[in-house]
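Can you give me the bound-state structure? Components:
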Amino acid sequence: MKLDRRKDLLGLRDLEREEIELILDTAVPMKDIIKRDIKKVPALRGKAMVTVFYEPSTRTRTSFEIAGKYLSADTVNLAVSTSSVQKGESLRDTIKTIEVMGFDLMVMRHSMSGTPHYVARNTKMRVINAGDGANEHPTQALLDMYTIRERKGTLEGLKVAIVGDILHSRVARSNIYGLGKFGCEIRVVGPSTLMPPEVEKLSVKAYYSLEEAFADVDVINVLRIQRERQQSGLFPSLEEYANLYMVTPESLKKAKKDVLVLHPGPMNRGVEISSEIADGSKAVIDEQVTNGVAVRMALLFLMMGGSKSEIVA
Amino acid sequence: MELREKNVIMDEVAIKRALTRIAHEIIEKNKGVEDVAIVGIRRRGGPLAQRLANRIEEIEGVKIPVGVLDITLYRDDLTTLGLQPQVHRTEVYFDINDLNIVLVDDVLYTGRTVRSAMDALMDLGRPRCIQLAVLVDRGHRELPIKADFVGKNVPTSKREIISVLVKEIDGEEKVVIQETVDR
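Here's the bound-state model for the whole set.
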């Protein structure tokens, strides 16, 4: 398998289907560990990893950190807001400083697309992209795929609708790349101002009404309206958005009876998703969080477990 | 390097007889099987554990818990292996606290697998004791580990490889001794 020969995980676009399958398969026994009384295995004893987040995060950063700890790696978080970054240290110097402390792997989030790729080229550490701008968020898509596969038994041929701000969403992009490798029919739906131009080139079908997009779907992945990335004027108001695009029991009428509703969190209740759906039986939002830890454990093990001499950049 | 088959050291009948004897020994040593559970080490310890449990049920009329342990995450050679081994599930779906656990593996060699398995087991609870049953003990221990139940003791050289084939995985049933030949 190629995965343990890769130095970095920067996006699902470059991964092969078999590599994604290996990660998802490895996450199954990892999930068992999370449910045990003794939630620790010695697999990554003596390895060190650091999380560096230039953007806020609750679940992704915590999830990576606890995933590392469950595997016995030493995990450290660099709090960017209280670090020398605030004194004007350049990204490259910060990374170099971290590298020479002996870390084996770095998990990075940055608001600018391509930053983890730049870092990966300039360090010996392995790099996992935990979200770069509007480009990719590979581990989110992997945990979405794990959740879908666990519930549906397979990914093959499912109809998946991704709803909301497609334009700014790295979650959407990683899901499109990942699910596309499993023959899913992917639909994207949202206001035309939040739809990337030429979105069809990603092999998806664009819809502008929930009713049409949800007809006969197996899975709905609801994106967060990213208030921090909205320029003015893309839609009139949150109320207006909610009127047309909030996922509600009403909007699910034409979906399959056993449709799954996913949301990467944090949710804006009453904007992109109604509380009835978020807290209802079709939602698997808490399950996604648990699965996120399992998938990240799998990834950390596959990337950090082997011998260094085998790494081919 | 190439492998050459030197000898078949156990056939289907011999394996069956050895497992039957071990089943009796397990019952004898534990004075019954009230608190006994059997846990096989993946992969070939799994089917062997199931068979021991079946044999014990035939003899004693009692169904005892059976599980399978995946020790990949406990191996001591993870940092030296080139390729990452595939991790599988540990399937021990009963409470191991205060039970006499019989660990089962096909071949006992360096003892490192058994060491890993004991650590993995301890992370699932606190058994009253752990015993070890193996189909073949080939010597060359690198750790202070000894089997309680042995199907067959086979003196070997380190150049030799002992392969246990079981129906459930390999489609046939035998123990063969192979030798690495330099080409």
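A couple of observations. The first strand of chain A starts at residue 48 and ends at 53. The CA atoms of residues 11 and 138 of chain A lie 5 Å apart.
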